[in-house]
Structure formats: C-alpha cells, structure tokens
TrEMBL record:
EC number: 2.5.1.55
Superkingdom of source: Eukaryota
Annotated InterPro entries: Aldolase_TIM (IPR013785), DAHP1/KDSA (IPR006218), KDO8P_synthase (IPR006269)
Ranges that cross the membrane: none
Family that this chain belongs to: Belongs to the KdsA family.
Protein name: 3-deoxy-8-phosphooctulonate synthase
Catalytic activity as recorded in UniProt: D-arabinose 5-phosphate + phosphoenolpyruvate + H2O = 3-deoxy-alpha-D-manno-2-octulosonate-8-phosphate + phosphate
Record-annotated DAHP synthetase I/KDSA domain positions: 47-204
NCBIfam families found in the cross-reference section: PRK05198.1
Cellular component aspect of the GO annotation: cytoplasm
Biological source species: Linum tenue
Main location: cytoplasm
C-alpha cells in the first residue's frame, strides 16, 4: 500500500506488501518473498538473520580467500549464517580508469573455489542478460545492481536461472517501484526474490541510507 511504501518501510511500523516478509539487516533492509532455501540454511519470514558480506570486488584469488577465511570464522563464531559476496566486474565505475575486477570467466572460477573450500553460498551481481546463465551455475543468489533494478530483460534472464534474485533498490527510485521489479521476477516463473533497500538520493551526490526514522519528528 502507499502508506507502507512511503512510511512503513522506513519506520518498520506497518506490514510489508502481500507475499513478502520483512528482514532488517543493518544498514540495509530486505523484503523476502516466501521462504528461500540456500545450500546451508533456509530463510523464512525474519528467521534466521543472515549476512551478505565480502569484498566489493575480487581483487585477486589470494585476497578473496583471505577475506572468506576470516569472514567465515567470525560468522561461525557468532552463529550468523553467511552468504559470501564479491563482484567479478564493477561495470558501473564512475571512471573508466578504475579497477573493475577479473571479469566473468576468471571471477566465477575464483568464486566457485571459495564456495567449495569454505562451504558457503555465494552472491554476486550481473550487469547483462548474457551473463545470467553462467553466473547461475556458481551463485546461489544473483544480485541485480541498484542502477539496473528496473531493467526488465535483465530481471527476466536472472529469474530464469531459478536462483534466488536479490534486487537492490535504485537510489533514484521510490520504494513502490520495487514491487514492480519483484513482480517481473515472479512473472518470469521464479518466486525466489529479495528486495534490498539501498538508500535514496536527495539532490546531486547527496546519498542517504536511512536506518531509523521517526515520522513524528521529521
């Protein structure tokens, strides 16, 4: 409903849209559709709390293994289910001179090695429809970048892999837009969809990711 989309998503006082469960993961928020089964745990409603964590981009095989080792050790110690995240390509870099990653083929090889070595599910993002099939052979969760959250062909291609789809809300989008993005995945035959809050732009370069919001004091 509009009241939920405009206020409840931030304040947490109202119920999520029909068919979704609410998960809060500081500093991001997730809607989870139905129950999602990963290789080592099942996400149903708001239980269990789980973590998507890892390097923003694959810098090297040695670096990724070091990070996976330490993050897995910490998550195991505190009893927090982990989905390991890293990108094989950061296609949306501001500058063409910025490091983007090892690319699809080499990146997926590294992520697959990490998945096997540390027995952890993997999440990574796609930027083109043509990448989805290959990524789906390795990733347990396919992530749609915020800038691409409305791209129908990409959402449908990702959905057709049958993997869990995590759609990051574009900073330029109202939360209500994400209901349509999630619906595109479901209509493609995949009910396994999460929607991730990614913050909102308030003018040029003014990015705000709201953690707590009291509407009576705004």
């Amino acid at each position: 409903s509009p009241s939920f989309i405009d206020h409840g998503f931030i304040s947490g006082t109202l119920q999520p849209p029909q068919g979704f469960h609410f998960l809060f993961s500081h500093p991001l928020s997730f809607y989870v559709s139905s129950s999602l089964e990963l290789s080592i745990f099942i996400v149903q409603s708001a239980d269990p709390f789980f973590l998507l964590a890892g390097p923003n981009v694959i810098e090297s095989e040695e670096h990724i293994f070091t990070m996976a080792k330490h993050i897995k050790a910490i998550s195991t110690r505190v009893g927090l289910p982990l989905v390991f995240k890293s990108s094989f390509d950061k296609a949306n870099r501001t500058s063409s001179k910025s490091f983007r990653g090892p690319g699809l083929t080499e990146g997926l090889k590294i992520l697959d090695k990490v998945k096997v070595a540390y027995d952890i599910p993997i999440v990574t993002d796609v930027h083109e429809s043509s990448q989805c099939e290959e990524v789906g052979k390795v990733a347990d969760i396919i992530q749609i970048p915020a800038f691409l959250c409305r791209q129908t062909d990409l959402l449908v291609a990702a959905a057709k892999t049958g993997k869990i789809i995590n759609i990051k809300k574009g900073q330029f989008c109202a939360p209500s837009v994400m209901e349509n993005s999630a619906e595109k995945v479901r209509l493609a035959g995949n009910p396994n969809v999460m929607v991730c809050e990614r913050g909102t732009m308030f003018g040029y370069s003014k990015f705000v990711s709201i953690i707590f919001f009291y509407s009576s004091h705004s």
